[in-house]
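wait is this the right file?? whatever heres the structure
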């Protein structure tokens, strides 16, 4: 399979608006028509291709490359034809659509156009992101203006542990989190509890201190580590380095829940 990759350690220089290669199409990895874990209610979930992070526990390893032979290009009209066929089921459950990946902010022009179309049909929109925004401009603001909920993965606040766990610094993610707070953008923080990396009390306190005064963060969702996507690493020719790591015990999840509740946040898990 032919792939096109970007080294995540390479700094990407923002381009002027007229120099970008956006052609009105999104590069789509896959679609889930009735997802239940990617935001409130039943959701039409669009998995976009491409991610610059290299999380050791990633369960969507096959979405990293910006293009693959199996990815498909879709226009907003293509996607909306499908969305509108499900909209009655989505609305009945308080659901909507979710852009995820991969990292949807790498295709933020397309997501902006899609979410704008969804709002024209009164469909709830959710952006599931690791916060790796490359551009802070009118396009990003327009995207966020048409986003009802941002689900932001804050993987680790400690910069050194983050680099080991994710492969790159967390500076862009933390900047994006602060930008959402400045905008008062409704957000849910997602925190994966990975044994040996994010399951300690110190890391939980760092997270609580970072988001404690962010009134826009309505909820923190705790996600216990699992190995369900490990097989995809082998299919992509990579070694899964967390092989054999077990999910955290319930006691660990409850302790982290207690710590974050101490910072005034509602917790779901």
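ok assuming it is, sequence goes like this
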């Amino acid at each position: 399979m032919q792939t096109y990759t970007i080294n995540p350690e390479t700094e990407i220089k923002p381009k002027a608006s007229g120099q970008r290669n956006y052609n009105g199409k999104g590069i789509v990895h896959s679609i889930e028509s009735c997802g239940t874990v990617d935001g409130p209610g039943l959701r039409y979930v669009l998995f976009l291709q491409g991610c610059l992070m290299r999380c050791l526990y990633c369960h969507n390893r096959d979405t990293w490359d910006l293009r693959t032979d199996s990815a498909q290009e879709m226009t907003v009209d293509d996607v909306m034809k499908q969305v509108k066929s499900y909209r009655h089921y989505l609305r009945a459950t308080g659901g909507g659509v979710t852009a995820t990946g991969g990292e949807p902010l790498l295709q933020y022009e397309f997501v902006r156009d899609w979410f704008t179309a969804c709002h024209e049909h009164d469909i709830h929109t959710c952006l599931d992101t690791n916060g790796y925004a490359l551009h802070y401009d009118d396009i990003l603001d327009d995207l966020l203006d048409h986003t009802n909920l941002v689900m932001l993965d804050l993987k680790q606040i400690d910069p050194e542990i983050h680099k080991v766990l994710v492969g790159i610094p967390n500076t862009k993610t933390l900047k994006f989190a602060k930008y959402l707070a400045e905008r008062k953008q409704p957000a849910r923080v997602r925190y994966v509890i990975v044994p040996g990396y994010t399951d300690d009390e110190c890391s939980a306190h760092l997270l609580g201190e970072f988001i404690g005064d962010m009134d826009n963060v309505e909820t923190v969702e705790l996600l216990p580590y699992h190995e369900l996507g490990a097989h995809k690493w082998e299919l992509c020719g990579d070694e899964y380095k967390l092989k054999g790591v077990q999910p955290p015990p319930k006691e660990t999840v409850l302790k982290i829940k207690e710590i974050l509740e101490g910072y005034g946040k509602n917790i779901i898990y």
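The helical segments are 76-92, 108-120, 138-145, 159-166, 171-183, 201-211, 230-235, 250-261. so i think its the right one actually
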